[in-house]
Amino acid sequence: MAPNASIRKAAHWDVQYRASRLPWETGQPSTELKRVLRDISLRPGKAVELGCGTGTNAVWLAGQGWEVTAVDLSVQAIRKARRRAAEAGVRVQFLVGDLTDPFLLQGPFEFFFDRGCYHAVRLADAAGYHRTLKRITRPGTLGLVLMGNAEEPEEKTGPPVVSRQEICEEWAGHFEILALRPFRFDPRRPGERRYLGWSCLVRRRA
């Protein structure tokens, strides 16, 4: 896993969010997020989305009764996210910044969601990501992390991929993996490629 310093630079993401064709920006809440929350019957509480992009999932969570905080490194993404929340008539606390900043997020949260943030951040600062999670969660906090799956070859237009072994090793500290299953990311448009991912449900240890 080679370090990639550009991932931690806002300009790297701002350039992409000025573009119109981003494969992860579907305009719809994650089908996998909706499935998991339905299956585990988790009551709404305080939630945080890490790497929220233009806010589709954060806005959906707020619409389900969650008190949502959402963070992204890109100013361009957060501007779009705030507009989306205003149009939907829901309240979300959107923050611009590096999620590994110890002063950015104030927990504890009862649920965290990550659709494709960890598989990028881990290339630059996996330890910083886990330090943040430890600080903003408490024993029993649940989290859903969606990431690229190394069981299919990584492609330039697809997500960074992670192996099952890497996930088990990297999440073995303060979190217990409750479920780890392959799934397909939602396509940006019907008929487009659905990349293979991992759906990883974790719980903070005592």
List the helices and strands and how they pair.
Blueprint: H1 10-17, H2 31-40, E1 46-50, H3 56-63, E2 67-72, H4 75-88, E3 92-96, E4 111-115, H5 118-136, E5 142-149, E6 161-162, H6 164-170, E7 175-184, E8 196-204
Parallel strand pairs: 1-2, 1-4, 2-3, 4-5, 5-6
Antiparallel strand pairs: 5-8, 7-8
Can you put this structure into words, describing what you see?
This protein is an alpha/beta fold and about 210 residues long. The chain has a single domain (about 5-15, about 25-205), classed as Rossmann fold, CATH 3.40.50. Helices cover about 30% and strands about 25% of the residues. Strands 1, 2, 3, 4, 5, 6, 7 and 8 form an 8-stranded mixed sheet that branches. The longest helix has 19 residues, at about 120-135.
Second rung of CATH, namely the architecture: 3-Layer(aba) Sandwich
CATH class assignment: Alpha Beta
Q: How many angstroms does the end-to-end distance come to?
A: 30 Å
Structural class: alpha/beta
| Low-pLDDT sequence parts | none
Order of helical and strand elements: HHEHEHEEHEEHEE
How many independent structural domains? 1
Strand content: 15-25%
Number of strands: 8
Radius of gyration: 16 Å
Overall morphology = globular
